[in-house]
Design goal:
Layout: H1 8-30, H2 33-39, H3 44-51, H4 54-82, H5 96-108, H6 110-118, H7 128-148, E1 154-156, H8 158-178, H9 182-203, E2 205-207
Antiparallel strand pairs: 1-2
Helix pairs in contact: 1-2, 1-4, 1-6, 2-3, 3-4, 4-5, 4-6, 4-7, 5-6, 5-9, 7-8, 8-9
């Protein structure tokens, strides 16, 4: 193996490139490390050398896309938490920047996102969608508590908040599965985001009785 790994970075990138094709075609569980290594012109030992195991290789394929997605979400919620909700009036288009940032990540890493959504069973990322929902739920509860403090006689409707989180995630999953073109995706997701924000403002709180 050591003779074949003449350029560490080049060999690592070859493995990631070949693994992405294999995971896309077969999914994590059925993907063959032997096939991936052979396609990269290396031995299976190279996978363990660079990535530790199959999960490590999977992370090598999807890690950058996931990091960028998390960064967009965290930046968005930081801005929302810092906003003055007492003065906020929802207007169509006021979350377009967020929609565009999400679409940029998703369509800039379309194969990786497809792998995470549909090909990750058996990997440590098989709960990818659930983990995003958990992240959104945690952030939305903090934001909703702040919102409730601005509205007399209201409290957070946690069950509805969880429903709204699922609806938002499902909208973006549907976008990915049915809109292969980035511009078309933006055309449809922006008004959907407007609708979701209106629903969040209307239904995330309930009467405090």
């Amino acid at each position: 193996m050591s003779e074949k790994i003449t350029n560490n970075n080049e060999s690592r990138e070859k493995l990631i490139e070949c693994a992405k094709r294999e995971f896309l075609e077969k999914g994590f569980a059925k993907a063959s490390l032997r096939k991936i290594s052979s396609d990269a012109g290396l031995t299976t030992g190279a996978v363990y050398f660079f990535f530790g195991d199959k999960n490590g290789l999977f992370e090598g394929v999807v890690g950058e896309a996931l990091a960028q997605l998390n960064a967009v979400l965290e930046n968005h919620f930081t801005q929302d938490i810092e906003a003055d909700l007492t003065a906020y009036q929802q207007q169509d288009g006021d979350h377009d920047d967020f929609s565009e940032a999400l679409v940029d990540v998703i369509y800039g890493h379309y194969d990786e996102m497809t792998i995470l959504l549909d090909r990750s069973a058996g990997s440590k990322y098989e709960r990818f969608v659930d983990s995003i929902i958990d992240k959104l739920d945690s952030s939305y509860i903090v934001l909703a508590e702040k919102y409730a403090a601005c509205v007399p006689n209201k409290r957070v409707n946690r069950k509805m908040l969880h429903w709204l989180t699922h609806v938002q995630i499902n909208a973006f999953v549907h976008m990915m599965q049915h809109e292969k073109d980035k511009e078309s995706a933006l055309h449809f997701i922006k008004p959907v985001m407007d609708m979701l924000i209106k629903a969040w403002m209307e239904y995330s709180l309930e009467d405090d009785v």
